[in-house]
Amino acid sequence: MSNLDLRPAPHPCGGNGRTGPVRDVQPGKQVPLGESTVVRRLLPNLGRRMVGAWCFVDHYGPDDIAGEPGMQVPPHPHTGLQTVSWLREGEVLHRDSLGSLQTVRPRELGLMTSGRAIAHSEESPAGHGRLLHGAQLWVALPAAHRDTAPAFEHHADLPVIDGGGGLSATVILGELAGAASPGTTYSPLVGADLALAAGTDARLPVEPDFEYAALAISGESEVDGVRLAPGALLYLGCGRTELPLRADGDSSLMLLGGEPFEEKILMWWNFVGRSQEDIEKAREDWMTGTRFGEVHGYDGERLRAPDLPAVPMKPRGRVH
Length: 320
What we know:
- The protein is mainly beta.
- The protein has a single domain, classed as Jelly Rolls (Sandwich).
- Helix content is 4%, strand content 49%.
- The chain has one helix at 276-288; strands at 11-14, 21-26, 29-33, 37-43, 54-64, 72-78, 81-89, 92-96, 101-104, 109-113, 118-123, 131-140, 151-155, 160-164, 167-176, 179-180, 189-196, 200-205, 211-218, 221-223, 226-228, 233-237, 242-247, 251-258, 264-268, 271-273.
- The strands form five sheets. Strands 2, 14, 15, 16, 17, 19, 22 and 24 form an eight-stranded antiparallel β-sheet that branches. A seven-stranded antiparallel β-sheet has the order 3-4-5-12-7-10-13, with no helix packed on it. The chain has a four-stranded antiparallel β-sheet with strand order 6-11-8-9, with no helix packed on it.
- A hairpin with a 2-residue loop joins strand 25 (264-268) and strand 26 (271-273).
- The radius of gyration is 19 Å and the shape is globular.
């Protein structure tokens, strides 16, 4: 997933700091993506830049794309992060500069590690279905792994937890309640798809040292006493051992969490770095056609990098 903002703001993120339990509903922002998709951008936002190592969250749909091109995101670069593709409805065709060609379907994990540099495109395949609904997320890589070799993983078989009381949870990334995703991680975190049947009244065990957020995907649900409509992100802080969940009708959530990310990072456009020099070098390499490789098979031109901000960029501590 690309940030297609022509004037992307630099986001200083990370740094030490923990909060106790909170219930803070974060506003989303409507952002156009590609030719015909509009997403709700939940992270980063004015009140919060990260949840654990999760540094970027877009939620889109459900969109009726019958007779439309659907998602069309041209080739674009990434550094210093992992991208996570998660679908509830529809299909997305992934291509990258490693030569990967993979269709990602509902409840399958598409996980791309950019490491030092990768480029990719995402599009609704020809003959796609009527609906498109899902989320695209980024995970910041810690300094020890920021220059790791790029890689792409596709996992169609993910662990599912029966949480009792009408709750089931698919572990997308990391570990939850003793179940572990096969996806590669580089810091302690979790991402899970929570399905709540009508009448759910459950308590999900969580890690007190993790900070968490819940993204409402479909239907209305109640998370720790806060009622959420689809597209809302509830930041929950740290310090819980369990998370109360309720639903009157069928609904779904994404649970995101992890140890608070202690490093200071700088995120601009599609790059995560540690300094302005990192960002400038990544942009220059993309524009000159070096380092990122080529994405073959996409019918269209690759994205041009936006102009850099006129003011200096520097990382700072995390926002609480």
